[in-house]
Design goal:
The structure is a homodimer. Chain A is built from 25 helices and 31 strands. By secondary structure, chain A is an alpha/beta fold. A 7-stranded mixed β-sheet of chain A has the order 9-8-11-10-14-15-16. In chain A, strands 26, 27, 28, 29, 30 and 31 form a 6-stranded antiparallel β-sheet that branches. In chain A, strands 2-1-5-6-7 form a 5-stranded parallel β-sheet, sandwiched between helices. In chain A, β10, α5 and β11 form a beta-alpha-beta unit. The two termini of chain A are 31 Å apart. Chains A and B meet through α5, α8, α10, α11 and β18 of A and α5, α8, α10, α11 and β18 of B.
């Protein structure tokens, strides 16, 4: 597929099917855009009714084109598209862009048409972009293959937009900001080509590219920006993204965080949003930055295109105004960065070069009457300071302020130092004159200092991820996830599935837990009071009595649990109580109900450990505070499997429950290692036995000696 | 003071002390700004060395001015300011602006100078703005009394900025956006005039102003924007703001949310930040919107200046692009708004007027090829729809898009309907042409739809507050906070304070609680095992044993509490245990330690109730989850006193603990009314006895019958 994508993005010849002399038709606009953009390859308009279009020879039929074009762009009414693509395939062209709308996005009829189109593309092994897309731009080929305004500034960024409209806005905005791109692809309905094929192609390309970024003295990267309303294949996307992100930053705006947006999407593109929290977690693990708004997506485009990520988190703020500097200090902390502490050397030098009333602590206030020379002196000192990893330069247009000259000073200094400098020249007309200069020097600038800092924070997050990812790779190679010799369970659970069972019984769960070395409290099914008393004698009070049945997922809701049974007398009362409650249950459930006794685990912290299979990202591990706290504190921490022992430690440490586990009354040490072991074993269990929709252990009680799986539920997947 | 402020803002004559012929001096710039702005009053330059300055007669001494100017503006070196202001006062001028810097902001010497300046201003009863400020603008007087770029567009907004630099940025930005102001005041060091005097003045003014806003058919308001680094007097500010906000929206950017910003402020203006969470709560109660960033402050300025607040929270999104509409749906929910549900009538009309492929659900997608007429039809239907309270119009510049024409259509329609319309024309050069048109029609526009929606959300928040505030007023008048006849405690606690005591003893706290009808579990100090056993016999097991002493604030930390004492045998063991621990305590503490017994309250939810005196906002009530949960779930809910019974209900309902209180195991109803009573009584206690720095009851255990104050601590204030 990669060679076809190469033909698509770098064609030596292009046919435009549906090229037209009518300036309002897409086929005309696309043809003109390609020609006017300066594309140097051969160009073949196809139209049965014309012989010349904008000075080019037109062909009445695709078959008549005197060569096999590398790329065909189709801009004809939807009804004729399938047939046209078949002809293109027959001729031998392997890359097609279908601009025409009228497919999946219009409903059932269109969806059928799209299925046919897909089939034809597969039959002829065609890499097909669209339908219902705006086309693409490749600035290195001077190729504007869109019916949009185009975008011909060269830059280092790739961009993928599922929405043509968002692309139009980015074109207009990028033109204004003088921001360039390597290529810009609009996906449309993704009938065959999705974000994944392009990521794969760029991954291959990036392996060849070892250009050095001269300013930052490290290998150059090509950031990848994305606007996606749906992921075509979550697992593949994450896998590719993780590889790409080790060299190149990726960021994505993926709406659908709220129910309202999910509803809007369904009525718009038919994309069904996956579980959004899982998506966020998967992106985070893969090193992908998730933009929260269109604004942030624009900000990250500027930041990653024009600057490398900082090497550390210490930021200095340089400003001619105290107010914005104070506001920025808030933003620095909120972005996960730190205010750089200046060395006494740097402070002394600043004192020597700045007026007495200036502030030499960070933020550095060069005062309202600062001319460009004062900015220059201070900035140079900060660029040379070891304790400063990045600098935010703030300027407010005051009476004496030399706006453009200061911008020039910043731009020139930036070229000589390998440290990110972000600017915020705050205001309107006056400030924008400075921004125009900054743009020339490729200094990222932002209307507000908070936005500069937020972008810097995301860059730093990616840098940290990149460093950890390198280590992580080794972890995966040297310490594989726990292996297992418990495959004999495969057969027994397969049988249950074939019988149509949905849940595992308590005894089956306990059997699995035993074999996976997941500790459960002593427990037994009892059928008589004598049995019960004997069990209590053996293990000692207090005891817990439960009604269990595979269908009773939330036992407390049916009052099927009695805890704190502390004597034989209480035991007798409790079992009578439960037996009478049993009769209140629906008949279908009642027949499977058993009376279960369990030694009560005291003096521990309740947590919840679960695994859940998701459609988009495979199995996800969940950890949090358990027992009655579950709903109160919304302590849901996720990790997409596989998980290393380090990952397991981290999911526990980032939970709110962790402060309970470490701050247990009296400062007693709890058996955290046992908890980690239990989690690792559960992950292993669902890896070896890939049959579960969900297993939840709630609570796991962690005491000073052990982590007990007190209550487990297992729901089988539907196959 | 109000008449002096009127003289300041609307002077019939102005003297500029330090007026100069040197175009680079502040005294020259200010004089020119006033003259060039078109000020129509009399203008007197004062300079000992000149006779004419920019064509005006100059006076060698203030005393020689042929009348008593309403306003004097001082722009001379700091060393001479005090003397100059004395002369001004002697002449009889009551309003002075000191532009000169070199006061508190420069350190100790400057602070002394400022103290002198303050004394002179007080002596002559002068309303003094500054020092170290940029001056002010009053557009209705065509008066630009700043040394800045000025700002002469008339508008309906008041603005106060403590920072001159932020003011400069706002001037530049507002010029660019064609946003006007009524007046714009920079406060500088606030030697005498602070935000409060201006709020008071505007409050009086607003009482006179009953102009009708024709477009929105409700009385016009004047929004007040503020950038403040410190509050001069928190209680007064909140009191004034609450009154103003009932008619006029207020918003404030007050940095200092994080420790880093507090540090930056201290090195910059010497303002000490109060407890930021209390500030946020106080602002919220007073109906003041707290902007989180400079960007949001700008956004709110546009929104409140050009639009009234929506009458409901239902928003329709109208877009020529699906992508941004989806993103907006997320933003709507996050802003506390709702996606409007369209009636079937509206939907039918939309279907009749829009192409088949358009989306008639909200968001309404008029498709990428929409011309201005399609926007017009859809917008008109939405303006007429009863279920829509506000509309966000999104436009992306696509091939056929009529950007300016669409803006004109929106502007014209807006004039005919009383519904807020917010626009986001996304892009760069192309989009900005549309923005220029929108600006002419005073339609708030934003670069990104998310920002439009966030601003709309804040407006809706204020509208809700305003409605509730009207009700609240009546509540205050008819149901006063619980009165009390417990004044006899005043004397006894006063005595303790005079003795230098810092904490109340358990017995004293219990005595207060008894008198205020705050229920505590049965408890007693015991000195012998027999006494203990008798107490247990009287009240029944389980029991809690504690070591108490006023100094032992956190008993669990010294293992001074044993719970779950369930038999005489355990009681004996527990008391021996505690007696032995007592010997481990420091001698000074040990002598006050007592052994306390308390009936253990079982089957309840632990919460924490506290009151705390703050320097800036008086006494604050705190409520949240208690016991071991306190630190885990950070459930800190605040309310600045006074509190009505409704406020008390609300602070409980908004807490995370509320779900524990209502979702208690088995769905048992807990005694919430008793909890509300306990909180009200505690509020009353600290109102009647204003001697406490802090009283904390942790835990209060709420059972199905009662709310028990299990453990109370009271720290006396320092006087």
């Amino acid at each position: 597929m990669n060679t076809h994508i190469q033909q698509l993005l770098k064609p030596r010849s292009i046919a435009v099917v549906g090229a037209s002399t009518d300036r309002h038709k897409l086929g005309n606009i696309v043809l003109r855009n390609i020609k006017d953009g300066g594309y140097s390859g051969r160009l073949f308009p196809v139209n049965p009714h014309e012989t010349k279009i904008i000075g080019l020879n037109a062909y009445s039929n695709y078959i008549h084109i005197p060569e096999i074009p590398d790329l065909a762009i189709v801009a004809i009414p939807a009804d004729f598209v399938v047939e046209a693509v078949r002809e293109i395939g027959q001729k031998g062209t392997k890359a097609v862009v279908v601009i025409s709308a009228g497919f999946k996005e219009t409903g059932r009829e269109g969806a059928l048409r799209e299925a046919e189109l897909q089939a034809v593309a597969n039959e002829y092994d065609i890499a097909l972009l669209g339908p219902n897309c705006l086309g693409f731009v490749n600035t290195r080929q001077k190729l504007n293959a869109t019916f949009g305004q185009g975008l011909m500034h060269k830059g280092n960024m790739h961009f993928i937009s599922q929405s043509g409209a968002i692309a139009s806005s980015i074109f207009d905005w990028a033109e204004h900001a003088s921001l360039g791109f390597k290529d810009f692809i609009t996906l449309g309905n993704k009938a065959t080509l999705s974000e994944n094929e392009f990521l794969e192609y760029w991954l291959q390309e990036q392996a060849k590219d070892t250009t050095l970024n001269k300013r930052f003295n490290e290998s150059s990267y090509s950031p990848i920006g994305m606007y996606l309303e749906s992921l075509t294949d979550g697992t593949t996307f994450i896998e590719l993204a993780r590889k790409v992100a080790q060299t190149n930053p990726l960021f994505v705006l993926k709406p659908g965080r709220t129910k309202a947006a999910q509803k809007a999407m369904q009525s718009h593109t038919g994309s069904i949003a996956g579980d959004d929290a899982v998506l966020s977690q998967a992106l985070e693990q893969a090193g992908v930055i998730r933009a929260k708004s269109i604004e942030e997506m624009f900000d990250l485009s500027i930041a990653f295109s024009w600057s490398q990520a900082p090497q550390g988190k210490n930021v200095a703020i340089l400003s001619n105004a105290g107010g914005p500097a104070v506001v920025s200090s808030d933003a620095i902390v909120e972005a996960g960065l730190s205010m750089a502490t200046l060395s006494s050397d740097t402070k002394e030098l600043l004192e020597a070069h700045l007026p007495r009333a200036a502030s030499f602590l960070n933020p550095i206030d060069v005062l309202g009457d600062a001319l460009s020379d004062r900015y220059e002196k201070a900035l140079r000192l900060l660029l040379e300071a070891d304790t400063v990893d990045a600098i935010v330069v703030i300027l407010t247009p005051q009476v004496m302020t030399e706006i453009e000259k200061t911008a020039t000073v910043v731009g020139r200094l930036a070229q000589r130092y390998q440290k990110p400098i972000f600017c915020s020249f705050m205001g309107g007309h006056l400030a924008s004159k400075g921004e125009a200069v900054l743009s020339k020097y490729n200094i990222p600038y932002f209307s507000y200092p908070e936005r500069a800092i937020a972008a810097l924070g995301k860059m730093w997050w990616w840098r940290k991820w990149q460093t950890q990812a390198k280590k992580r790779k080794e972890v995966f190679e040297t310490t594989p996830v726990a292996t297992s010799t418990r495959e004999h369970h495969l057969e027994s659970i397969r049988k249950l599935l074939i019988q149509g069972q949905q849940y595992l019984s308590v005894s089956k769960i306990n059997e699995l837990f035993d074999d996976w070395d997941i500790t459960t409290p002593p427990s037994a099914s009892v059928t008589s009071l004598d049995q019960a008393k004997n069990f209590a004698k053996l293990h000692g009070f207090p005891m817990v009595l439960k009604l269990t049945a595979p269908e009773l997922l939330h036992k407390t809701e049916v009052s099927g649990v009695i805890t704190n049974v502390r004597s034989s007398k209480q035991l007798e009362a409790a079992s009578q109580e439960l037996i009478s409650r049993k009769t209140e249950l629906p008949v279908a459930v009642r027949k499977n109900v058993k009376l279960q006794m369990q030694a009560q685990i005291e003096h521990g912290v309740e947590v919840i450990v679960g695994v859940k299979r998701t459609a988009q990202f495979g199995t996800v591990l969940m950890f949090g505070a358990g027992g009655t706290l579950v709903e109160l504190i919304s302590d849901t921490n996720l990790h997409v499997l596989p998980a290393t022992s380090e990952d397991i430690k981290q999911i526990v440490e980032k939970s709110k429950a962790f402060s309970l586990l470490t701050g247990y009354r009296g400062g007693q040490q709890l058996a955290l290692e046992k908890l980690y072991h239990l989690i690792a074993q559960l992950c292993d269990l669902v890896t070896v036995l890939p049959f579960f929709a969900e297993i939840e252990i709630n609570p796991v009680i962690v005491t000073k000696d052990q982590a007990y799986a007190v209550d487990g539920k297992a729901i089988l997947a539907e196959f």
